[in-house]
């Protein structure tokens, strides 16, 4: 699946698939929502506040309401290409602040979704640290619904430090990463499935002690969106399709279905590339492949001790990550894809232009 596909044909095909998928799922949606609500999976609303605005997940009221009603539809934010290049990191103490916000953002050309963000972007900002760095995490909830932060790089009691934070409140805690890797972070408030699919996900990269050898460093975060029509021209997350484990409408790299086809990622030919790939899901597996390249080294979970050599692709499950290293010897256009091509056709495709 390359960048030469006619975009108009692609959009028409995607629209037809969306209509067909929506029709198949719509008949069961009300029953699914009813069962989910009875099971206590509706979005949390008002609960008793603990210290720093925190609550125990079990104490939060779970009202019988449609999750789509809890997503605030606002003005569509101007599209800004998510920068896939990584900035270097220096060892030492880190202060990481993550803020949950309401936002309506473009997830494909002409498709805006009302959801939530970390720090105003989908995915949230790439956080970076080094093994052994003392990290202070501040979680701020500027949205209108209760949220939380599940940080896969940490080893900590979730009931203590992945606390639910009510709107207008904040929570702070500390940890020191013990393992290098490319880790997911996300909202863990029930239903976690809905909160991730609504935009509350991101990546934290923890470097090994001493860092990595020099290379051109990039990051691609795969995720899917399941949407249905909302107010006006804005889409909203489709909880029924999520609960049914239905097909996604869009599978994206860094939160948008065509941004790196429209604006390719530029690299230098003949120089090593280190690409961190994190699959933030919530449901779809990624078979990551770069058309025209072979990975010299692949590090499972981006840990240098987990090395494989000479791979054509790497399978990355939801909530997992990897690091691939390769060199594009000749100038030209190469395509990074989820090699499950149905997902590539729905947006999991990025052009890498070697110059």
Descriptive overview:
The chain has helices at 7-38, 158-161, 192-197, 239-243, 259-262, 341-345, and strands at residues 54-55, 94-108, 111-118, 127-130, 135-141, 150-151, 164-165, 170-175, 181-186, 201-207, 216-225, 227-229, 234-237, 250-253, 265-267, 272-281, 286-291, 295-300, 307-311, 314-316, 320-327, 332-338, 349-354. The protein has 355 residues and is an alpha+beta fold. The protein folds into 2 domains: 47-211, Immunoglobulin-like; 220-354, Sandwich (Immunoglobulin-like), CATH 2.60.40. The protein has a 6-stranded mixed β-sheet with strand order 8-5-2-3-13-12. A 6-stranded mixed β-sheet has the order 14-11-16-21-18-19. Strand 18 (295-300) and strand 19 (307-311) form a beta hairpin.
How would you summarize the topology of this molecule?
Elements: H1 7-38, E1 54-55, E2 94-108, E3 111-118, E4 127-130, E5 135-141, E6 150-151, H2 158-161, E7 164-165, E8 170-175, E9 181-186, H3 192-197, E10 201-207, E11 216-225, E12 227-229, E13 234-237, H4 239-243, E14 250-253, H5 259-262, E15 265-267, E16 272-281, E17 286-291, E18 295-300, E19 307-311, E20 314-316, E21 320-327, E22 332-338, H6 341-345, E23 349-354
Parallel strand pairs: 2-5, 3-13, 4-10, 11-16, 15-23
Antiparallel strand pairs: 1-7, 2-3, 5-8, 6-9, 9-10, 11-14, 12-13, 16-21, 17-20, 17-22, 18-19, 18-21, 22-23
